[in-house]
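Form 7-S
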Amino acid sequence: MSEIHILVLLHLMGAAIWVGGHIILSVVLLPQVWREKAVYKLLDFERRYEWVGMPALGVLLVTGVRMAYLYQVTLTMWFTFQSPIERVISLKLICLIAIVLFALSAQFYVLPRLKKDSSKLPLMIFHILSVTAISILMLVLGSFVRYGGIH
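Output:
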């Protein structure tokens, strides 16, 4: 197996964990949490998923950057939108930045308040659904690499 093949497999496994976990959270758990106003179920899921979700995101980051370099899209080319593959990479990086901002907001603003005040539940749900939608968008963007990027 070539390096790119191994990287793609690791990237796909990371995506399966990251995106799959967020879809399960959004589709299965959130309706129940909302219906029952059971914030503790959301916090419990977050605590149990974090140990596998965050490493999966790390794998996505490391493999994604390495694959970008293998496609000869180096740091100096990011966000130039000059080539089809670089467009995909730059759009995925923009999505990643958005996810990081949502994660920081959730970790340092929403979750501490949610633990004390369940009225913050709609804001947390907005964060979760946003990260889920952005993650699915990243998955779709990644599929364009197979076809040479976004032309």
